[in-house]
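Give me the fold.
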Amino acid sequence: MDNIRLMLILALGAILFLIYQAWMQDYGPMQQTPIASEDQTSTLPSPAESAAAPTDAPDAPTPITDTEAPPVVDANTTQTSSASNLISVETDLIRAQISAIGGTIESMWLKEYARVADQPEDKFRLLKPQPPNMFIVQSGLLGGADVKLPNHKARFTAEQQAFALTDDADSMTVELRWSSETGVDVFKRYRFTRGSYLIEVEQEVLNNGAKPLQLRVYDQLQRTELYDPAKSSFIHTYTGAVYYSPELKYKKESFGDISDTALKITVTDGWIAMIQHYFMAAWIPPTQSAQTFYTKAVAGDRYIIGTYSPAVQVPAGQSHTFSSRLFAGPKLHDTLAKIAPGLELTVDYGWLTVLAEPIHWLLTLIHKVVGNWGWAIIILTILIKAAFYKLSETSYKSMANMRKLAPRMQALKDRYGDDKDRMNQAMMEMYKKEKINPLGGCLPILVQIPVFIALYWVLLESVELRHAPFMLWLNNLTAPDPFYVLPLIMGVSMFVQQKLNPPPPDPIQAKVLMALPFVFTVFFAFFPSGLVLYWTVNQLLSIAQQWYITQRIEKADKVKRGH
C-alpha cells in the first residue's frame, strides 16, 4: 500500500459520502408536497369536530380508570370568524400568533433571522398552521370521560388581542381563560422574556365545583415534513422528532419511525423536540416528575411528539398549577446547554460530537475577537493545521522520500512487467535499503480525518453561520459561491498538490488522480461557501507545508551527494 492508494481510498470515501447524501435526498423521508398557500389565519374546528374527540390528542389513560378514553371537548363553545381568534404577541426576538382555539401557538417569526439572505425584511417563519411546513405548539388538559376540560380544541378568551413587550419591561405574560358550567376555571399563561426564546407556560386549574377533579396535562408538537425547494441535494440534515432522557440520552424518532410504531415511554428529567436544520421547538417538563413521552401519526401526513403528566387530584375549592417550559427558536449551542441537560445535542454533530463541541467553542471564541465568521474559519483552520504540523510533516517527509524513488520504481515496473510478485518483492527490498516506510504517510493522515470531519459538521450545523457574510462577493457562507471562484481555487490547489506527490506507476491510477480535481470542483460548486472556504484554506496550507518539506529534503539530498 502506498500514498497513492490511500488517496484513492479517501477520494472514494468522499464520493460515496456524496452519493449517500444524494440517495437520502431522493429515497429518504419524502418531503411534503406544497398543497396550500401560506395563511396567517387560524383554522376553526367545525361544530361536529368540537363535539368529537380530537384524533391528534394523546391516547393517555384517564386519571379515574385504567381504560383509555379520549379527552372531552367543550361542545358549548361558539364559533366565530378566524380573525377574531388570533392573539398577536411581539417581543424583541419574536413575533407570534396564539389561537384562542386551544391556546395553540400556531405562528412564529424569528425577528433576528431572515428567510433568505438577500431579503432581510422577510423574517424566518418557524411555526405555521397550514402545509407546506405546518408546525404548531399545542397543550391541554385530560380528564375522565364525564369531565369537561379544555384540550387544544377548546375555546379560550383573552382580555386583549395584542400584546407587545414594552421598552421598560423585561417580561410579559399572555393569559387566556376557559370556564365550564360545572365551576372549573382554567388559566393558560405564556410568559415571554426579553432576549430569550424560552417561554414559561402555566395551566392553572381552579376547581370551584362540588367534587374533586382528577386530571393530567399534556404538551405536544405537531408538524408535517419539511419542504424546502432551495435545499441542497448534496447536504442532508435531520428533520424530525427527538427526545432525551438521562438513561437513553439523545434519541431520534423519524417520521417513518412515528408512522411505523408509536412511542410510549416514561421519562424523568427529559424533554421532547421537533428539530430541523438550524431551528427547533422543544417542550421541557418540570424536573423530578415522571412524564410519559409519546408519538403519533395522524391524517394529513402530520406527526406528533408529546408528553403528558401523571394524574393529579384537585379537591373541591382548591387549585393546581401545571408548569412547563417551551423553547422555540434557533439551535444556539451555548444557549441550549444552559436550559436543560442534553438540549444542546439538538445541534447534531453526529458521532464526532466529542470533537465537534470543542471545535465549535474555539470557532466562537475566535469570532468574538475578529467579528467575522469567514476570518474565524480561516484562523481556526490555520490553528488546527498548526496543531497537526508534526504529524503532517511525517506524512510529507514520507511522500518526499517516495517521490525520490519514483524513477527507480518505474524502472522496476519496466523490468518485471506484469510479474507483480517479483516487483513487490523488489520494491520492499528497495524500501528496506533506503530505510523508507511506505506506510509512513498513511497514519498521520488517518489521525487527522476525524478532526476535519468534525469541523465539517460544525460548519454545517452552526446557526451562527447562517447567512453570515465574509467579504467581496461572498455575502452568505451557507450558500454556494455564486461565481464558483472558491471551488475553482480548491480544484486548482488539489491539482497542484498531486504534482507534489510521487507519480503512480500504474497509468490507470494516474488517470483517476488527474480526474479527481475536476470531479471535486463540480461537487464543491454546490457546497456552502463556508465549507469550501475551510477546505480551500486547508488545501493551500497543505501545499505550502508539503512544498517546504519537499524542498528541504531535496536540498539535503543534494548536499549529501555533493560530499
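Residues 158 and 176 are 5 Å apart (CA to CA).
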